[in-house]
Amino acid sequence: MYGIVNKAIEELVKENFGEEKWERVKQRSGVDVEFFISNEPYDDAITYQLAGAVAEETGLALREVLMAFGEYWVLKTGKEKYGGLMEAGGHNLKEFLVNLPVFHNRVMLIYPKLTPPEFKVSHVEERSIHVHYFSKRLGLQDFVAGLLHGLGKMYQTAVTVELISSRDQGADHETFKVSW
Amino acid sequence: MYIGFNSEQFNRLFPFHILIGEKLAIVAAGKSLVKTYSLEPGANFFERFQVKRPALATNSFETLKAEVNKLIVIETIEEKPIALRGQFEFIEETNQLLFLGSPWFESMELIKSKSLSIHDFAYHDPLIDLLHVLKTQEIVNKEVKELLHTIQQQRNDLKRLSLVAEETVNAVIIADKDGKIDWVNKGFTKITGYTLAEVKGKRPGQFLQGRDTNPETVQYLSEQLKKRLPFVCEILNYNRLGKPYWVRINGQPLFDKQQQLTGYFAVEEDITEEKEAEARLKNSEQRWKFALEGAGDGIWEFDFIERKPFYSDQYKCMLGYAPNEFTDEEHSWKAHIHPDDLLFIDQMEQEYAFGERNMHNRTYRMRKKDGSYIWILDRGMVIEKDADGKPKKMIGIHTDITAQKEIETELSRTSKRLTTLIGNMNSAIMVEDDQRRIVLANQNFCNMFKVPVAPEMLIGADCSQSAEQSKHFFTNPDEFVRGVELILKEQQPVLNEIMQMADGRVLERDYIPIFIEDQYHGHLWNYRDVTDAFGYRQRLQEQQRFYEQIMDNIPADIAVFDAEHTYLYLNPIAIKDPELRKWMIGKKDEDYCKLRNKPMSIAVRRRAQFHTVVQSKTLNSWEETLILADGSVQHHLRNMFPVLNEKGEVILVIGYGLDITQRKQIEEQVTISEKRFKDLFRFSQALICTHDLQGRLLSVNPAICQTLGYEEQELIGRNLIEFMPDADMNQLRTGYLQEIAMEGSAKGVFTVQHKTGRQLNLLFQNYMMVEESSNPYIIGFAQDITDRVNAERELLLAKDLTEKAAEAKQIFLANMSHEIRTPMNGIIGVAAMLGKTKLNEQQKNYLHLITESARNLLVIVNDVLEIEKITAGKLELEQVPFDVIDKANVAVQSFQFKAEEKGLQLALIVPEKKAFTVNGDPYRLGQILNNLLSNALKFTQQGKITVTVQPIRETAEKIILQFDVEDTGIGIPEEKIQNIFDPFVQASTDISRKYGGTGLGLGICKNLVELQGGQLSVVSTLHKGTKFSFYIPYVKINPELVAATTAQVQETSMLKGKKVLLAEDVELNRMIATHMLEHWGMDVTVAVNGKEAVAMVEAEDFDLILMDILMPEMDGLEATGVIRKMTAPEKAKVPIIALTANAFKKDQEIYLKAGVNAAVTKPYTEEELYAAVQKIFSTQKKKKETKAKSGSKGPAEPVALFDLSMFNGIAGPGSEFRNKMVLLFLKTMPEDMKQLKQALQNGDADTIYRTSHRMKPTIDTMGIQPLKEVIRRIEILGREKTISAETADLIIETEKVLEQVYKQLKQQFKA
């Protein structure tokens, strides 16, 4: 995972719980990295360890941590750091989600060392869409759900995100139905 | 290879392409380029783009063509240009250049600012992703900077730390985990003399410890190191030169994150000097000990650790012990302390033990060996403490202070005795020493002067400023200060001095200086609060003064005697002369008579009275009458009153006399007055009675008895109600009695019954009398008004009859007027028509006679109506501008022909070259002159008739004009002359026969003159002639405002072709009207009644309807009503002129209310009808014009607020006259307006009235429609002296409209 992801976790914790909490999260996770560089790839395990430690330190469920992180990723990291690029993704939520596969494909080119997931969309309706998430990683589906919620907030649209199929249930990828 | 794209595909691939024609015209451009940059097809490439790279020699197609297959950067020409990077390709087939490329943006924000989005770029175009990469790079760069900053900061922190370690004066040692030195600082080298190189790898103990180093400390150190624990200790080390020095070591082991021992760290502080100082102190202590011992004091020492005391020999000796007898045990000292003093000793020991106390200074008793007690002053202090602050060692000395203590005790006892004494004294005491410091004061002193502390606290206080500081307590502060200064200076006792305090208290003060062996040692102040005593004394004196004043001023002569009739007291009323009064005390009346040479009989008489009192022991009163020297009489009431003691013996006699002369006189007056009132009551013709609140009669006067036919005794005690008819009883109970009880008075009429049963009406006015000593009662006054009531009743009856008769008369007159006028209309109309035909002389003559007769008859009818109007007060005068001379001239001219016919001279004499233009009623003036002239002509057979007009008084605003009509006629007999102005009266009965006429004319004239504020008089000589004179006051006006008033049939073009419906039932009248209307070119349709008229209006549209009022089937008013309610607006709004023979103005108002636009009275002349019709059409025209103007497009042309058509009527449109008028208006009106506003500000209603009155005709003449009513309202308000918000609003409105009018006028008359 690229440093930007771990960095976002760090910022999320610092912003919501303070520096000390972050130090404790680091200590608990056993991750001994002082500084994450955004476009430097780090072992995926670091991300999982950090997320786990955050859950333990804050007393939240891991699922909630990942969801929160997904939202934070869109609203803070994405919007603050890549503001223009995010906004260029679409004029509204629907347009952004329709363009999401292309957008992500572009991301793949930018981060060559990434093992990026792939997104596809189907069932494009007036007020809903199916987002398909193909990834080699396991256990990040809640992060994706958080991202989708975050996008809803970015476009000031109330959304519901429903996981309608997943690898846990034998499918080969996760499918989210996003309605607004 | 050929690849062909359609334009959509090409646009998708190259959304920013530009295709340029041979002549540099842009042939086509990509969709995204066009989206952000406006490019019209055909625009010149170089006008819209600039080639940035490479630089071109010239802007031509060929130079561009030469740049094919190169990297080209072009830029749009605009404020924030867009750079496009790409390349040119030449298309041979079309001879065109194609630019393929993409914009070069530095950030997504710029793309957004150019209204582009990610979708405007071809997918193959990597720009967006490039920007993304750049963004990521930017973020990373930021992070790296942040990281470098953090590292830099940490490095600085480290540097600072190492600097501290290096530069500190203490020795810093860092050792490895085996205790071998890794690093030492400069401080180490300085203290030990060894360099880092020399000691690196060695253990400190190896080379620093020496002979006197404490092995226990060395042992401690090695154990702490072994246990990997921090260590703190002091140790004696040796430097490189072998010189010993003391250090305090503070060290600790160091661990890594895994808690593995990595080394040691220690700081060593050089404490050699500290150690030496300590040793010096010890020596010094020893020396002090010896010194103290020598002074005879006992010295002790206590070691807290060992719990062991030390006592010096002297100490033991002080307690009577030999050195070896007193053991050095911990409690041996305490065992000798007096049991009563032990408590606080124990407490102090505890404080020492906890380290809370460092020293003490105390006294207590100690038992000597022989059992006696001595007083000890014990002083001690801690001299050594451990690290926790707990005492390790303390020393002290004991001094025997028994002798001192005994003196103190004695002193204290004496002082206590004194203090108690002074403290318990009632006075406020304060003793000062010779330096004016307080030695003593008691609580009373503090209370008295409100000192908020205990008296003990005052001791020692400086009093040198006390007088100044406390002077505010005293009524006279400065005097107090001066007094104190004087006393202190003289140092002589001052006793019982009274001091007045500001708070009302009174103090008595003693000053006692203290001299001991002739030496001044201070003084004592003693203050006592004597407010109560002082107040009591004062009150007593005041009371005495009070009683004396009463006795002296009481308006009675008072004398007090003892039981022997000797004077004890006399007041100034009794004896005025104070000397004599004084002399009288102790004397008797006999002495007085002797002294004053009065008859002794007075003394004898008084003595007899005195004896009576003494004997009877009761009050004795008698009256004395004195005749004074001036002959006047005085009456005195004398009293003598005995004062008895408890045994009932007379001890004093008080004599007092009152002058009752005035009372006597009043009593006499009251008797007379009472008699008078009784007479008044008895003889009054008014009915007077009194009765109680229930109506029961208490008293009646004879007039009542007479009026009602009862005797007095028949009335007294009976209720009013019994004398009233049954019908009125209730009114008395609920009305009268209640009203008078509540209001205190009532008035009205009672109906009462005479004894014979006859009813009488009594007008009464009664009042309730409320007097303290008696019950309230009513006093009533009444008057018998029975006769008056009867007369009034008859009068009312008569009035009613008269009014009914008058009404009948009016109805009759109205009918008569109508009935005569209708045929008259026919006669005059036909005569006029006949006049337009060809006639021979005789026919003309006959026609003239018909017309004249008809006119005469009309005059008679009009006269009858006129006098009716006048007597009914219904005549209304006009107020219009006119020229009096002009009017007089017209009147005279109209009789000229007749005068000539009779061979008479008729002349008008007026002041030369004078016009009298006034505001008034020209018709009424004409009527009066016509009447008088007609009479003059009638009664004059030869000679002349002269009309004279002349002013008899003239001011700037007003003029009174006199008119004389003089003839040389038959004259009026003297006896008739006073009646000739009465209606229906003629000078002689045969006049009506001989000359005709109604006899109303002069009555009308007189009334008309008087209505206009003037008077008509007559002078006549029988057979010589008569002169009628009258004057009328007029308000003068500007002559130019006089407008021509008579419309003439001149301009009928406006009427040509207009459709008019004539509704008239009388055929003759129809014929006349039709003739006139058709003569003017109008298209006439006829209806014979209202019903037919309505049907015709429904069927056809008309421009005008002439509507007779009285018609069969449906009358004119009803028809008007139906028409006005028609749904089609053009029908409902058709103008209607009523034709009526009813000349009363009241009737005309009814018609106008019913919906007609105007009314014409029959019979009418052609001019009269024309005037009415023309007015309707000109109003319509104006309305249309206004409407057309306001409806037109473009900047709204303001509607003209004025109408100068009146001038057109006078002198034709565009005349010079009109221009002059406008100029005059512009000049005068602002001035008037200014005056009006000023008057409003000043609240000057009179000026408002006068100014608005002046402005009114001008506003009318100028046709300023919006102000016509406004200015009249202002005038009315002014006249009524009312200045209200309404006045202000109206004046503001007037000013606003006038401003507009000025503007419009100036614009219209620019030329």
Q: Can you describe what's shown?
A:
The complex is a heterodimer of chains A (about 180) and B (about 1300). By secondary structure, chain A is α+β, with helices and mostly antiparallel strands. Chain A folds into two domains: about 5-60; about 70-180, H-NOX domain. Chain A has seven helices and four strands; from the N terminus they run ααααααββαββ. Chain A has helices spanning about 5-15, 20-30, 45-60, 60-80, 85-90, 95-110, 140-155, and strands at about 120, 130-135, 160-165, 175-180. Chain A has a four-stranded antiparallel sheet with strand order 1-2-4-3, covered by helices on one side. In chain A, helix 1 crosses helix 2 (about 20-30), helix 1 crosses helix 4 (about 60-80) and helix 2 (about 20-30) crosses helix 3. Chain B is α+β, with helices and mostly antiparallel strands. Chain B folds into ten domains: about 5-125, Haem NO binding associated domain (Beta-Lactamase), CATH 3.30.450; about 170-270, PAS domain (Beta-Lactamase), CATH 3.30.450; about 275-400, Beta-Lactamase (2-Layer Sandwich); about 425-535, 2-Layer Sandwich (Beta-Lactamase), CATH 3.30.450.20; about 555-665, Beta-Lactamase (2-Layer Sandwich), CATH 3.30.450; about 685-785, PAS domain (Beta-Lactamase), CATH 3.30.450; about 795-875, Signal transduction histidine kinase, dimerisation/phosphotransfer (DHp) domain (Helix Hairpins, Orthogonal Bundle); about 875-1035, Histidine kinase-like ATPase, C-terminal domain (Heat Shock Protein 90, 2-Layer Sandwich), CATH 3.30.565.10; and more. The interface of A and B includes residues 7, 81, 102, 107 and 110 of A.
Please give a quick description of this structure.
The complex is a heterodimer of chains A (180) and B (1311). Chain A is of the alpha+beta class. Chain A has helices spanning 3-17, 19-29, 44-58, 62-81, 83-88, 93-110, 141-154, and strands spanning 118-122, 128-134, 160-165, 174-179.
